[in-house]
Design goal:
Shape: globular
Number of strands: 4
Number of helices: 29
Main location: nucleus
Helix content: 55-70%
GO molecular function: DNA-binding transcription factor activity, RNA polymerase II-specific; zinc ion binding
Protein name: Zn(2)-C6 fungal-type domain-containing protein
InterPro entries: Fun_TF, Zn2-C6_fun-type_DNA-bd_sf, Zn2Cys6_DnaBD
Largest sheet: 2 strands, antiparallel
Keywords: Nucleus
């Protein structure tokens, strides 16, 4: 994981209440200085209501102030009737409470009033801050005990009953409305919180504040279709994990309702005018749909196969621009300002530039899922379509999937810098550079996996052609191994305790095993029933060693990203200790999706049969016979 700024984590909710304890003496001084500045500044009544309700300074620009523009909030300058506060203050004093602008309002009968503005739909960001504050408020006593002297002055001076009111006031929030016009329930907001925190860290090691998942959520705030898919996938995964896989009908029904609405909207979008289709939103929604089917789809993989075929069709019909995508050298120009010279992607249309980079990145992500599904006889449609589209690509003359994958991935590299511009921290830029090579290796491994899967499908149909293709796949394996030889060799000596938690370490430990898994998968196909050669032995040792290091470093979070290499190692190894450890890991992964449970059952059966027969077992044959449920990892 990337390192955070001192004393601050992007996983912390953005809307902490003012009474939450300070985490350091510097933070305490900063809060005190802010309070003094606020008390000394003159108050203006010309600011927007959005800033005034949050009690922050507004620059009073119209039609939208800079703060609302930066946070994508609704800037409200509408006139409101003045409130008579005299009697309300008397009521507060009669209850023995000092005037405190931060304490919740009380009714004369001692009950709680609705949160400010709850009579009208709230903005999504406000609702997220309030929901997050509940979770942090519930932990205040533990924070006070742990932090000792470093406590907030306001928390120490506020009566405990007021703290309880602050905790309780948002436990049952009203139905809220997102900018995309969806009405969001309490469960929906819980799903959004899961998507932006836990989900984001499982599927991307990058800082969640600046990751691809963060861009997807930004798009979802203005797209009902994409928001439905966020709620469907994140909501079901959250409940699946919390219940240990014992899903209740109510949660599944809510998830399926969001899912079906998203599919209906996708159908209308695809059938509409191609020029009006937002390909960034469509591809992001398709990625979530494919992932949903992979994790929670039917046992024969029909839904997953249909989505992959549909995505391939959309790319062929609606994304012809892929073939004419400019080379990265054409997209890079040098810009100068008064301070320094930087090289970044700056085409004439800034918004289209970011969209194109994002589309390219989503194609890479979807192709990775497609390659994984192809290993189990489901996918391959997306990769074959993209190869066909990219034949006229300026930099590509060969037909190997490695060519287009590398080119598109390199083209999309300026995505984050273009998305956040000058607000993108230099620490994130350096972090991207550090992880650039290892992510390049991951993209190559996904395409190698697709090539091996395509080769496996060819063997039963045309043995002669399959043997000819075997040579090209073997050359591609050697090519990637030589290109990333230093990275692969370095992983042998890497110890997680050297720099635990660092993103580069985490990525090396979980990405290099994918190359070893492709090597094992290739030789398992081309040398069936034969003893392992030295390349297979080295690959098997590499997977087990790195997997153990990754588990020590991150636990199940790392196993989530290394599931397929673990599955291949479990099939190939004859070490009973390694097999039992791998089975334990898959048993634990069963909490994260049905596909991992199906993989565990098949792996357990394959290990048992191979021990009984004294030879390797054809995994795909067991699936094709219908003995076990089809899955993709």
């Amino acid at each position: 994981m990337s390192s955070w700024d001192a004393g601050e984590s992007p996983l912390d909710p953005p809307g902490l209440s003012r009474f939450v304890v300070a985490t350091s003496s510097d933070e305490l001084r900063r809060i005190s200085q802010m309070d003094q500045a606020t008390r000394g500044a003159g108050r203006s009544r010309a600011g927007c209501w959005t800033c005034r309700d949050k009690k922050v300074k507004c620059d009073e620009q119209r039609p939208q102030c800079q703060r609302c523009t930066r946070l994508s909030r609704v800037c409200d300058y509408s006139s409101r009737p003045r409130k008579r506060r005299g009697k309300e203050r008397e009521k507060k004093k009669s209850h023995g409470l000092a005037e405190d602008s931060h304490s919740p309002a009380l009714e004369t009968d001692g009950g709680l009033k609705s949160p400010p503005g709850s009579e009208n739909p709230m903005h999504l960001k406000d609702a997220l801050e309030q929901a997050d504050s509940v979770e942090n408020s519930l932990d205040i006593q533990q924070r006070l005990q742990r932090l000792g002297d470093y406590t907030s002055i306001r928390a120490a001076q506020r009566p405990i009953d007021v703290l309880q009111f602050s905790i309780l006031r948002y436990l049952q929030p009203p139905t809220l409305v997102a900018p995309c016009s969806l009405e969001l329930s309490y469960e929906d907001h819980s799903a959004i919180h899961h998507f932006r925190t836990t989900f984001s860290t499982y599927y991307h090691t990058k800082n969640p504040q600046y990751s691809v998942l963060s861009i997807i959520f930004r798009l979802a705030q203005n797209s009902p279709m994409l928001m439905h898919m966020v709620l469907s996938l994140a909501g079901r995964e959250e409940m699946f994990y919390k219940s240990g896989g014992e899903e209740a009908g109510k949660e599944v029904e809510a998830s399926l309702d969001h899912y079906n609405q998203a599919v209906n909207m996708m159908t209308k979008a695809v059938e509409g005018n191609a020029d009006e289709m937002d390909m960034a939103v469509v591809l992001a929604a398709l990625w979530l749909m494919i992932l949903y089917e992979q994790k929670f789809g039917d046992s024969d993989g029909r839904g997953l196969a249909q989505h992959l075929k549909g995505t391939a069709s959309i790319l062929r019909q609606k994304c012809r621009s892929l073939a004419n995508m400019p080379t990265r050298s054409q997209a890079l120009v040098t810009t100068r300002n008064s301070d320094d010279s930087v090289t970044e992607a700056v085409p004439s249309d800034e918004e289209n530039k970011v969209s194109t980079f994002f589309i390219a990145r989503m194609i890479v992500w979807i192709s990775a899922l497609d390659a994984g599904a192809a290993s189990y006889g489901i996918g391959g449609h997306v990769n074959s379509s993209v190869v066909e589209l990219s034949k006229s690509y300026a930099d590509l003359e060969r037909e190997l999937p490695l060519d287009w994958s590398s080119a598109i991935h390199q083209y999309s590299r300026p995505l984050f810098r273009s998305m956040w511009g000058k607000e993108y921290p230099s620490s994130e830029i350096l972090d991207d550079l550090q992880n650039q090579e290892v992510y390049h290796l991951l993209g190559e491994c996904c395409q190698l996996r697709y090539m091996v899967a395509r080769l496996a499908a060819l063997y039963p149909k045309d043995g002669t052609l399959a043997r000819d293709r075997t040579l090209s796949v073997s050359r591609a394996l050697d090519q990637v191994g030589q290109c990333f030889a230093e990275l692969i060799d370095t992983s042998k000596y890497l110890k997680c305790q050297d720099r635990p938690g660092e993103r580069l370490v985490s990525n090396i430990l979980t990405i290099v095993p994918h190359y070893h898994a492709v090597v094992l998968d290739f030789f398992r196909l081309t040398r069936p029933g034969q003893p392992l050669n030295h390349k297979q032995d080295a690959a098997l040792k590499g997977i087990t060693t790195l997997a153990f290091q990754a588990y020590q470093n991150e636990g199940d979070r790392a196993m989530f990203r290394i599931a397929w290499p673990l599955f291949i190692a479990g099939i190939e190894t004859d070490d009973l200790v390694h097999r039992e450890w791998i089975l334990t890991r898959f048993r634990s992964l069963g909490r994260y999706g049905k596909n991992y449970r199906r993989a565990f059952k098949l792996l357990h059966a394959v290990i048992a049969q191979s021990e009984e027969l004294g030879r390797s077992v054809d995994v795909l044959q067991l699936i094709e016979e219908g003995s076990y449920e089809r899955f993709a990892i």
